[in-house]
Amino acid sequence: MSNNPGIELDEDDQHKRPDYIEIKKKNLLHEPQEYPFYSLNPALSDVSSYKYWHKRLRTLIENSSQKRVAERIFLVEFFPYLSTKFDFDELIIPSQKYSFSLVEKAIECNSLIVILRGQKLWFKAIPDLKKHENKFVLHSPRSSYLTMKNCGNDSYSKLVELINIDRFCYD
Question: Where are the domains of the chain?
């Protein structure tokens, strides 16, 4: 879970690519894709979101595979709209309720939840998250790298284990 996706001013052409548009549309509709976490789709290796997330998930990929990580990681952003700076902590819009419901479903499934950023915002929006025992916060929220050092040994080991087993809660 994070705050929101950033954007660089020179990324406009990336967001107009037909393949990128199609992949993002399938993601929004929860349609099956080879790489469900589309930011790890190798077809988008020249896109900034791929570069951003591949770098931050590199050690998990090394402990499993890129495809496996893309199948097991589900990112929910607090404010899921592109911006150059996050400044929406007091603004809640109707579409965010859907994002919050996804987190609530993860809590019901007792999924491991990793809070990358915005812990206070998430706890305020979803009070049950604070009580959810199967979660952890990165040691350095300004650095969203999922590494052993940033997660802690136990949390990172648990994350790697869950990525490498076949257990899901979809319904």
Answer: 9-163
The Cα–Cα gap between 100 and 78 comes to 8
Q: Report residue 9 CA to chain centroid gap.
A: 22
Furthest C-alpha separation in the chain: 42
Amino acid at 125: A
Tens digits of residue pLDDT in 6-64: 445 556 577 788 999 999 999 989 999 999 999 999 999 999 889 999 999 999 999 99
Would you say 72 and 163 are in contact if contact means Cβ atoms under 8 Å apart? yes
Structure tokens at 132: 């959810």
| SS3 label, residue 149 | helix
The span from the CA of 134 to the CA of 132, in Å, is 6
C-alpha count within 13 angstroms, C-beta hemisphere, residue 164: 12
Amino acid at 35: Y
CB neighbourhood size of 8 (10 A): 10
> DSSP per residue over 25-42, as a string?
HHHHTT---SSSSGGG-G
Max mean pLDDT range (7-16, 56-65, 115-124, 138-147): 56-65
Structure token digits, residue 158: 């648990």
